[in-house]
């Protein structure tokens, strides 16, 4: 294990437990992917709140671990070859933690790739499209008089939910019987769409019975409940 004091990010967020993985995040759909994963694999970590209201995401210290100024980011003192590793992008963090722990990703090469494809389905589809829907439903976009942008993202959200609903038919989880990083990537965004954007009625969410069933199972997991509020409000 290396001394983390040489990493600029620890100047702003000092590590009380430098032997633990350091998490820099907020409880957003992307942020809780990392905290839920860490709770699921029971890896010791120390969370730090990146306060967007104070502009923490634009500070040199945070940019030293997340050049794209987005959360979450991690600094693992026990990375590959025993060296510290800083990572940003929630999908990369999920893959890294799955491989580090040997958990929540299939070992069979073909099944592993199928799991990664559903992880990328969330990163390339559900996250960006649900986020745009939220902009036009909850934020400044709702003032746009032209109805076409809003309709575009409603329709795309409906399409993506349909894809997911068909995948989940007769399955416990996205990968079938095995809970995985694909579920940890997808279902925080379903929660965000329902609870934060309050867009469930807009897309008639209850018609997607398989998504509803598996979402409820996801939300019932103790590790998910613990991870949803990390980092805790100050």
Automatic annotation (TrEMBL):
SUPFAM superfamilies the record matches: GST C-terminal domain-like (SSF47616), Thioredoxin-like (SSF52833)
Gene3D superfamilies named in the record: 1.20.1050.10, Glutaredoxin (3.40.30.10)
Pfam families: GST_C, GST_N
PROSITE patterns tied to this protein: GST_CTER, GST_NTER
Alphabetical list of PANTHER family matching this protein: DISULFIDE-BOND OXIDOREDUCTASE YFCG, GLUTATHIONE S-TRANSFERASE-RELATED
Name the UniProt record assigns to this protein: GST-like protein
CDD domains: GST_C_Ure2p_like, GST_N_Ure2p_like
Segments forming domain GST C-terminal: 108-234
Family: Belongs to the GST superfamily.
Ranges of residues in domain GST N-terminal: 18-105
């Amino acid at each position: 294990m290396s001394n983390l004091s040489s990493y600029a990010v620890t100047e702003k967020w000092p590590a009380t437990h430098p032997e633990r993985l350091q998490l820099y995040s907020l409880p957003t759909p992307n942020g809780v992917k990392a905290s839920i994963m860490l709770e699921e694999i029971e890896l010791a970590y120390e969370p730090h709140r990146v306060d967007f209201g104070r502009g923490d995401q634009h500070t040199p210290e945070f940019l030293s671990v997340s050049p794209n100024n987005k959360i979450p980011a991690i600094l693992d003192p026990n990375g590959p070859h025993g060296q510290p590793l800083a990572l940003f992008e929630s999908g990369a963090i999920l893959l890294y933690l799955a491989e580090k722990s040997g958990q929540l990703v299939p070992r069979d090469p073909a099944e592993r790739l199928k799991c990664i494809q559903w992880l990328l389905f969330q990163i390339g589809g559900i996250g960006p499209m649900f986020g745009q829907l939220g902009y036009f439903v909850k934020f400044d976009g709702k003032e746009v008089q032209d109805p076409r942008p809003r309709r575009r993202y409603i329709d795309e959200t409906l399409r993506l939910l349909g894809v997911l609903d068909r995948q989940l038919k007769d399955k416990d989880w996205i990968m079938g019987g095995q809970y995985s990083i694909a579920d940890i990537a997808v279902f925080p965004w379903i929660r965000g769409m329902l609870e934060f954007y309050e867009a469930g009625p807009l897309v008639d969410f209850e018609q997607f019975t398989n998504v509803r069933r598996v979402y409820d199972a996801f939300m019932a997991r103790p590790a998910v409940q613990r991870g949803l509020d990390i980092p805790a409000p100050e």
